[in-house]
Specification:
Distance between the termini: 97 Å
Radius of gyration: 36 Å
Strand order of the largest sheet: 5-4-6-1-8-9-3-10
Shape: globular
Largest sheet: 8 strands, mixed
Structural class: mainly alpha
Oligomer: single chain
Number of helices: 38
Strand content: 5-15%
Amino acid sequence: MKNLIKKLCNALMVCVAMVIVTFSLLITQANPAFLQNNLLSKRLFAYSLLNNFSNVIVGVLLILIGYQIKGNIKLIKKYAYIYVVNLLIFIGLFLWTRSFTIQNLYDAVLPITRNTYPVVLGAISALLIKDKLKNWFKKYKFSVILGGYTIAFTLPSLFNKDILGLGNGNNIITAFSLVALGIACSNVEIDKLHIDKKAITLMSIGVIVNVVLALFMPYISLKAHGDFSTAYRFNVLTSISVVAMSIVIFIVGQRLKINIKIPEYTGLLALLVYSNNFIVEKTVNGSMSLKVLLFKSCIVSIIVLVLGWLLARIDEREHILERKLSLNDEKTIVPWISEIIVKMINYIKNHKHNLINIVILYTLAYCSFIFMSPHLTSPHMDGDKYTSIFFFAFFVKQHMMILTLLLYYLIYRFFYGITNKFWLSSIITYVAVTIAIVADAIKIYYRSEPILPTEVTMVSAYGDILEMIPQIILWIAIIGIIILTGVIIFCEIKFPQERLNWKSRLLGILLAIVVFGSSTRINHGNSIVNAWLSSYGNEPTFWNQEYGAQYNGAIQQFLNNIDTSIMESNSNYSKKRVNKLVGKYKKQAEKINKGRINNLSTQTIVFNLSESLANPNRLKEVELSQNPLSYIDSVKKITTSGLMISSGLGGGTANMEYMTLTGLPVSNFSPTIATPYTQVVPNSNQTLTINNYFKKSTAIHPYRGSFYSREVVYKKFGFQKFMYLGSKYKIKYKMKIGTNPYLSDETAYQNTLDVINSYKNGQFINLVTMQNHLPYSDYYDNSEDYQVSGDMDDGEKYNISNYSTGLSYTDKAVQKFIEQIDEINKPITLVFYGDHLPGIYSNIDGNSLEARETDYFIYSNKYARQHGAKNLKHVKYVSPIDFIALTAEQTNSKVSPYYALLTEIQKELPTIKVYAYNNGKNPVFVNKKGKTIKYKQLTKKQKRLYNDLKLVQYDLTAGNQYLYKTKFFKIQ
């Protein structure tokens, strides 16, 4: 009974000590307000004392470990267990917080080279040579040893210069030193040690000095420096006052025969928590409340005690690791290292083919990055700095190369599991991977995007790919396959490899299926695989598939494109329901068309997406010295105009294009759809856009055509021409302003005018400008004309000033363009809109309406106004899907049943907040006053309208496309 009580008391003391240490670590990491403010408070003094005592406890623990734990070679096994536990903790904390960095992962996998938990390593290193240290300490008196430690820890503490490289104590040297001190103490019978009044006095002074320093240093630091920069100078494991108090507590404990027994694994796990910052950081996880932090400290302490007990039980029963590592009490560290080196060499010799296989797969992984860049440069925008793809892949994207290697290895293990033939599986993997890399490289060269899953599942795509490949390469491939077959047969006979047992085969197959199967959840925001890959460094970049392949490697980018659930299934969806909807809006179209006199196809319509255009003066946080969009604001007063609600902030251009051209809101799509251009359009057999109503349609983008797969998308949309830099339809005018790397908006309009004047009848033009794309450097001579004031730093003001100057050039270019189209004798209507705000504002709430408002206007030239075009009443808020209906109404053009639906939505339904991605559930709207309206607040008619649009969108993008077989899109 006494033993049980003693054990319980021992466990309680260990637990309390662990809570104190953990609580101090969590508070330090959380950095609550009382630590940030340069104000003295009771909490601050209490924290300083707590922090000091926590370091004292760690000091005592290290001394006790050296004093109590037996030193032998089997400690390597204990380190191996700690390594595994730390990996499991890493996984557990990731599952809890759903985040980590690649550095955190490296720390967990490579703890020695990354110095992840140095205190654990230092303690075990000292214990591994405990016998030698013990014998060495026997040569000196205990008082001499204590004197040496006093000098070593006093000098850095006294002069605040870390001459011995001890730092704050969270390092190998400090842990080794204090454990070594415990080993020195084990040579002395502490309980029989003679302690006179002088020693008692010194010990008492040591404790008092430590407490006084902990309490008064915050006050001294504030008075001396005006802040707390040196407040906790003595609250570290290397402070002589902390070390002295640790020694005093240890000696007093031994003299009083308290005999606290530290279980080996519990002690090592406590040191793991103390020295591994990732554990502390993720345990805090944003918590600031002291009560919550205390509760978490108790939980962590209990977990440490339970894990320590479990590891001790496992250690007693499990001896496989000891046999594998040749660990026994008779060996010392030096002979053991020599034996392990010999074993490693023999392992390499016996498994050379497997290791060579991994080297080849790694080389292929490297190639899968290199050949994704036709120009052998790292991904970059014009004007950005860049390096070679060789350097970028090896030094910047090494972690993604390792991921690619693992994926290739799983493919190999899958084949190995099925065939149980090493050479056959290896060579099949090499061939399959090589073909995939070559196919991706060819497609990127010709179409600026890699192979997509939709193409693999479409038989017709293989023909397209084969057509790109010269016949000589196909013949070389056939001959290569024949040769490889011979090589496989030769290797299987001449160099037969060990067959796998059924468990290994099944494990390889299952792992491959699970890992590759998890790609169906990659784009689900709350999924584990999404969180893991995002934390690991996967950047899908759907807006530019070529960049995605260069960032992530070809195979990972391919997997990124698998998880594209377009829309949630619609229970009301059926052919009958679709046909009923067609009839309903056919009648509505007839009703609308009675009052319309023009045909859309006879008009010249220009949809002009102006890159990143949104007047900064509209933001509460920004005040400009003058208005950069003075002309555009004056036009907005005399024509249809207002604010467009963008789905993006700082990006997402293609999504605005998609909505304006199709009339379908991106907010109805699944959250897995980041970019419809690359994830929806390729899956659709047909996509109807406004340009389909015109005999001639042209897309103009004075930049590269590869972004958002525009080359492929525009072709599918039915544009006859796509003019971009490098296209066969040349961009004739190429003027830039100052040092801006992008072509000016004036140039864009000059090219547009050429297209307008080249065709006398109606046509559609989709113009996407680039002048105001980031970055916003000092491109212009007159940037000082736009002075910025507001609560922001100088860097932000600099960006806004340069951005505003760019807007002013756009303003002048728009004025010139409008004046020019007014002189043309045919009906021209310009739909001008900014796609999103630039991502340069730090004080703006990204979810606020303010952050999504861009300028728009619809202007019809003089000729159009003389022939039926009319200005509409000021429409303050519109979404990109409203432009089609507004254009048809302003040009007085007749509509199809589909455009009749869009017209009703524009007139009757509050503006859809297209940036609220919610899978079509519980949509959010904005009324004319800018107030948010929820779905349940809509009238029955409004709900019907919204659900009708959702049904149409489902049929066109995710359903059976019944509507294309009806007259839903035909203008009568």
